[in-house]
Amino acid sequence: MTQVDDDTAFSELTAPYRRELLVHCYRMLGSLQDAEDVLQDVLLAAWQGLDAFEGRSSLRTWLYRIATNRCLNARRAAARRPPRAWDVPGVDLVEPSGLGEVVWLEPFPDALLGASPEARYERTESISLAFVTALQVLPHRQVAVLLLRDVLGFPAREVAEMLDTTVDSVTSALKRARAGLRGSPSSGTATAADDALVARFVSAYESADVVALVALLTDDVFISMPPMPYEYVGRELAARFCAGILGGGRRFELVATRANGQPAFVTYLRASDGSRRATGLLVLTLDGGRVSALTRFDAAVLSGFAT
């Protein structure tokens, strides 16, 4: 068999799993760019080690073993994006509630989510920004166990083999990981009124109606903006923040997309001559008929979204 034939056969063998492996790497790393880099490393390692694959587990399990351990190595050695100073032109910094530590967080385009049976996990909270953010601050091994057991449904015995540990260690790590996630922000539950809520949000944002915008937020609304570390909690600070962004005669156009299973918008700043410039991505978290979180990403993340 020629090298070309080998490459084609390997590509066909692994193609059904690439999309879900990318999602898995993203959950572990919180960065789409890092996940894509690690996935390439995973596929290279699988290609180089295919002759040693003895078939004692399924190909999918074997690939997840490689991917999980490569992600663990990446988390330990990652040169994460550093926090960035406030750099919104013409807008003064509003004193934040606090500074976030997961400044490397990036959004995951819904267009990259798969339609395989495994994708049912990707349509729930397991891909939400709140969940992915919470994973980043858990110990590395706990994250791996939680994802493999609770999200992907691998048996404890297989997880122990993947991580070269014991079933008892897996059980203990899973218990600690679940405890560590308690109290983490929820992504909310979708309701039939969500479309109307999002439409009102767009109208208020595009018309720079801060009063109408703030009325759509929960009392404890949470605003963040990776890679800037500034975080704002509560309507009062949200009102001041939104007034700064939407003030000064600035007008934005929001173009709908989706990220992390959530409503999202590419934001364009409109100029007086009718031109527009993409400024970033805004992701909404909805809960109980209100917007409970706003996450703003800069324009660097837009390559994965229609603009």
Automatic annotation (TrEMBL):
Give the highest taxon in the source lineage: Bacteria
Query: How does this protein assemble?
Result: Interacts transiently with the RNA polymerase catalytic core formed by RpoA, RpoB, RpoC and RpoZ (2 alpha, 1 beta, 1 beta' and 1 omega subunit) to form the RNA polymerase holoenzyme that can initiate transcription.
Which keywords does this chain's UniProt record carry? Answer: DNA-binding, Sigma factor, Transcription, Transcription regulation
Q: Which residues form the SnoaL-like domain?
A: 198-292
PANTHER family associated with the record: ECF RNA POLYMERASE SIGMA FACTOR SIGJ, SIGMA 19 FACTOR
Which family is this protein grouped under? Belongs to the sigma-70 factor family. ECF subfamily.
Instruction: Give the Gene3D superfamilies listed for this entry.
Output: 1.10.1740.10, 3.10.450.50, Winged helix-like DNA-binding domain superfamily/Winged helix DNA-binding domain
Q: Which CDD domains match?
A: Sigma70_r4
Q: What is this protein called?
A: RNA polymerase sigma factor
**Do you know which InterPro entries this protein is assigned to?**
ECF_Sigma-70_Domain, NTF2-like_dom_sf, RNA_pol_sigma-70_dom, RNA_pol_sigma-G_actinobac, RNA_pol_sigma70_ECF_CS, RNA_pol_sigma70_r2, RNA_pol_sigma70_r4_t2, RNA_pol_sigma_r2
Q: Which NCBIfam families match?
A: PRK08241.1, sigma70-ECF, SigX5
Q: Which residues form the RNA polymerase sigma factor 70 region 4 type domain?
A: 130-179
Q: Where is the RNA polymerase sigma-70 region domain?
A: 16-81
PROSITE patterns noted in UniProt: SIGMA70_ECF (PS01063)
